[in-house]
């Protein structure tokens, strides 16, 4: 019987994100990444419960675990390891689609005009109410599998509105924020509320994006979500991160923090997810590139950049060779 579930060795970089048990990064902290890097290789050991047991240089891990048996061994030579992505806001369960609305929007129709024509959210609600639960479950499983292939190992479905109420009641996180005021930002910073921004929503609706740069500079902890739904049909967090960097003026480091530890914190899961630290769940991505930034840089190529998706120490997706 194997002593451990998984050994990943020879990685060029292990992007831990944080390495001090920090549960959320705020303001300037979001631009600081904890990275273990060595040209001679770095390793991760995962225990049989699916948690991270050890992180270190290859030479250290080889010596420490010289007699250990592993269920799986992955040679990550020349590659990088990052935490599995956390999607802080989705609506991943529905029936039907609204592809017919896309042409209307491109032609200049507002959301209210689409709604008045019988489209919009009520179109989806009507289809969901009429669909059998078995159909909804089948659709959700298909969506979840696609999210997993794109690197998302933890996601959540929610909806919520009312910024002032959210800050007043001490909400863990508030989403959307396309029209957040300076007063709203100050209230969220003071209350420690995480701002979950959704770049695809502003993009698809041609809205002014949330003032993400201003929010971070004010000292807020910002997370990312895809808002995956029939209106904003994007479930790939690498695309979400790219849009956030280009359209909302955040750095690559900030985008990764927002899509890992901070998104986990927005779900109250950062004690167990969102970073690569001993004791945390081994939700990991192996990036087939010499630097981790390629997962954001190579827009639309995440299916080629992600070599392995690991959930709880088990390989759940592997790039076709």
TrEMBL record:
Domain called Amidohydrolase: residue spans: 210-317
EC number: 3.5.2.7
GO molecular function terms attached to this record: imidazolonepropionase activity; metal ion binding
GO CC list: cytoplasm
Keyword Cytoplasm among record annotations: yes
Coiled coil: none
Entry keyword set: Cytoplasm, Histidine metabolism, Hydrolase, Iron, Metal-binding, Zinc
Keyword Cytoplasm listed: yes
Entry-linked InterPro entries: Amidohydro_3, HutI, Metal-dep_hydrolase_composite, Metal_Hydrolase
Known pathway: Amino-acid degradation
Any GO BP: L-histidine catabolic process to glutamate and formamide
Enzyme class, spelled out: hydrolase
Gene3D superfamilies (UniProt xref): Metal-dependent hydrolases
Pfam families documented for this protein: Amidohydro_3
Protein name according to UniProt: imidazolonepropionase
Organism: Paralvinella palmiformis
Organismal lineage: Eukaryota, Metazoa, Spiralia, Lophotrochozoa, Annelida
